[in-house]
Specification:
Oligomer: single chain
CATH architecture of the largest domain: Alpha-Beta Barrel
Number of strands: 9
Distance between the termini: 29 Å
Largest sheet: 9 strands, parallel
CATH topology of the largest domain: TIM Barrel
Radius of gyration: 19 Å
Order of helices and strands: HEHEEHHEHEHHEHEHEHEHHHH
Mean pLDDT: 96
Strand content: 5-15%
CATH class of the largest domain: Alpha Beta
Number of domains: 2
Helix content: 40-55%
Shape: globular
CATH superfamily of the largest domain: Aldolase class I
Number of helices: 14
Bound molecules: flavin mononucleotide
């Protein structure tokens, strides 16, 4: 019954939450989907790989497309492009901790500059009519936890919803996600707040909702190798096998060449977690050279 009361969503993950995995998550009951981060400038200049990342299918609605960037005008042009392509929402990445991204003022670096962030919000808000959302961290580091300040500014600039992954940029993915920061943001603004961080099960999602009052819950790493986390009911071994087979088919249909091969390896390695001899199987999967060989090795171990 948990899934009937909690809006569970798949968190954006670069090189993971591509079209096939999003369809699998939706098939398992995930709510609004979000693309992986899309470089706004690369999209605007028509980079082929980026345009491919920005592709989605009608059955993915409702879907948010997430932009990574810092220049307000470039972000606005990319957002208009995605709105015209049918995106239901544009989400601004304010959480990416990667050094070469923050060095460009993008991702989590936007949180260090509340005035600059306000200009980005205002420019994006003027550019598009669909929902505009942001995904933030707790702050830059332990001395500058400013999620509440950024959330208030965002609300004032007409942002429709905020996802909070409460670790700071300095924490990256270490330690425990301090959910109390999500609760503080919920208390500070009237727009919906989506909680994120360390939710591995539907029970965790329930606990986060109770602890923070968030309107929806986003699950990232907990969905790797376990997209059935979005359906609270017990999933049989037979049903898991069906979901994994469909995932493989979707990868082969929608991705090409080395990208498809790498995605099969990554996701099947995640699905193999908990198998006896999983580490060996993982090594074997990554050494194989064709999609058929990778899938055969997985199903032989299943
Ligand atoms: C491999 C990986 C890639 C990620 N890529 C993105 C991204 O593109 N955009 C984003 O906003 N967050 C990204 N994140 C952060 C997740 O969306 C999420 O905030 C974080 O993993 C915490 O949630 P979790 O504990 O449920 O995994 C990524 C996380 C991981 C593990």
């Amino acid at each position: 019954m948990l899934d009937s009361v909690i809006d569970l969503r798949l968190a954006p993950m670069a090189a993971v939450t591509n079209l096939p995995f999003r369809l699998v998550a939706r098939g398992c009951g995930a709510g609004r989907l979000t693309s992986e981060e899309i470089d706004a400038r690369a999209l605007v200049v028509g980079n082929v790989r980026t345009s491919e990342l920005a592709r989605f299918l009608p059955e993915e609605h409702p879907i948010a497309m997430q932009l990574l960037g810092a220049d307000p005008d470039v972000l606005a042009e990319a957002a208009r492009h995605l709105e015209a392509a049918g995106a239901d929402a544009i989400d601004l990445n304010m959480g990416c901790p990667v050094a070469k991204i923050v060095a460009k003022g993008q991702g989590a670096a936007l949180m260090r500059d509340p005035l600059g962030a306000a200009v980005v919000f205002r420019t994006l808000r003027k550019a598009i009519g669909v929902d505009l959302t942001i995904k933030i961290r707790g702050g830059w580091d332990a001395r500058t936890v400013n999620a509440v300040e950024i959330a208030r500014i965002a609300e004032g600039e007409g942002i429709d919803a905020i996802t909070v992954h409460p670790r700071t940029r300095s924490q990256q993915f270490s330690g425990v996600a301090p959910w109390e920061i999500i609760a503080r943001v919920v208390d500070a603004v009237a727009i919906p707040v989506v909680g994120n961080g360390d939710v591995r099960t539907a029970e965790d999602a329930w606990a986060m909702t109770r602890a923070t009052g968030c309107a929806a819950v986003m699950i990232g790493r907990g969905a790797l190798g376990a997209p059935w986390v979005f359906q609270a009911a017990e999933v049989s071994r037979h049903e898991r096998a069906r979901i994994i087979r469909r995932h493989c088919e979707l990868i082969e249909t929608h991705l090409q060449g080395l990208t498809a091969l790498l995605q099969l390896k990554k996701h099947l390695a995640w699905y193999a977690r908990g198998f006896s001899g999983a580490a060996k199987l993982r090594e074997a999967l990554f050494a194989l050279e064709t999609p058929a060989a990778v899938q055969d090795a997985f199903w032989n171990a299943w």
